[in-house]
Amino acid sequence: MVLSSIILGLKYLFTRPYTRLVPEKEPPFKTETTRGRHVLFMEKCTGCTMCQRVCPADAIQMVKVEGEWKMNRKKIFPRIDMQRCTFCAMCVEICPTGALAMTDMTGWEMTTDTKETTMYMPYQLTQPEGHKLTVTKQKWIPPPPMFKPKPKTPPKKSTR
Amino acid sequence: MGKIREVEVLLGPQHPGAPGNVAFLLKLDGERVVDADVVPGYLHRGFEKMMEYRWWEVNVVMSARFCVEDPDNFELAYVKAVEDVYGLEPPEKARRVRTIIAEMGRIQSHLFWLLFIGGVVGARYIPSWAMAAREEILKWYDYITGHRVYHHYMVPGGIRWNIPQDFQERTLKVLRFVERIVNDIKRALFDNKIFQARTRGMGILKASDAIRLGATGPVLRGSGVRHDIRIIDPYEAYDEVEFEVPIGEYGDSYDRCLVRLKEIYQSISIIRQLVGKVSTNGVYRYKIPLVAPPGEGIGRVETARGEYLIHITSTGGQTPYRVRLRTPSMAHLTTVIKHVLKNEEITIADFPVFVKSLDPCAPDLDR
Q1: How crowded is the C-beta side of B299, counted as CA atoms within 13 Å?
Q2: Chain A: nearest CA to B83, how far in angstroms?
Q3: Which of A90, A149, B105, B280 has its CA 20 to 30 A from that of B361?
Q4: What pTM was estimated for this model as a whole?
Q5: Which domain holds residue A81?
Q6: CATH code for the part of the protein at B44-337
């Protein structure tokens, strides 16, 4: 019994190691749907503050950005605190104009040495080089149908 | 000099033998553990209150965090409770995909438990094998849902987004890999005499005591009670599949461990039966209105650790009025441990093995 366990263990000695040397030899594991750092398309943003309201971690605040914005009369845009963000993509899902999207930039690629640099201002939320967009509003196109509750039927009158 | 009778020792929260971020105040008489008081609170975040301030759909993000190792079943219970409040029936496809995701969560939770049980009995090769299998499942999750640990894939009304084209092939490939490693773990750990000597006849919990003390899940089934919410109150797509509920014979630690191992095989079988029935076509989700009707909702699921119940009250607003959770680990870590220590001689070396055979989860205890 014990001997068979040892023999089985020896079998695994000759298999390729499952661990990977990141980042020296291999990049971190990612897929086409990995939810990572946000991208803000400022020309699409209307400043409706829906992303701020939906955020479960309170990571999004609206800040004023001076300039000419046709879509955004109030000139307010989301800034995202990556220290608080849980990368749930609720903001991407609720954005009515598709101004927010997510890239596959995650984990150690976002590490910084100061707390202040975790706050991404609107003009810093551009698409990082070498990272592709993963979660966009396209995921919910066509949009799922709306649930319509059944009208309540009045209780039947007793025949007695 | 007087003889010291009892010594108090704090085991955990930073201890390899402690199950996560939870501590035990042990009373020792020589080597024997006479009594153990659980010291919770290291992970308390007040989820029930936090959920009262977030929208119905957003609370899915909260509910995944009740248990790090098995987030999907906890998500599923919340989603079911909200659908109960709205009076909504999810699409058939969503029900099947949710069942697959939840069963995969059960497998990865049991694999994570194998890591610990291998560690505490000194079988150092088991953790690396179990983690290799779990890693494949996490990669699968990343591909389907976008995250490895917290998936947020189930939403009230269905699933968050549609499944990819090669869902079936990927799922079957992962299952083949996991099954191969679990077979090896069974041969190397469960057939091993040393492991049997450490767990057989230790931590015996009779069926009548298990019911009386509020034990659920593999702990109750290990005692020989065939109680599973998936069978007695089928939810999602469990009424479409056939599976067995493994039970133990003696109610000792080995039986509880064996029940979990057999459950991995049953979960694999459930996923294999369902994966052929889902395709990318069809409605996968109904969007729910922001404001819920007034009423109450209940979600009851069988998580990897036992029965989990969530009760939500709505007064017709954007957020729940009150949320109440019943999590499985509380009963296991308080009443069951005290009962077994009172009736049986368990040494301090065996205590971590016994506790891990109950598979408690610290975040679900504290929540």
Answers
A1: 26
A2: 11
A3: A90
A4: 0.90
A5: 32-140
A6: 1.10.645.10
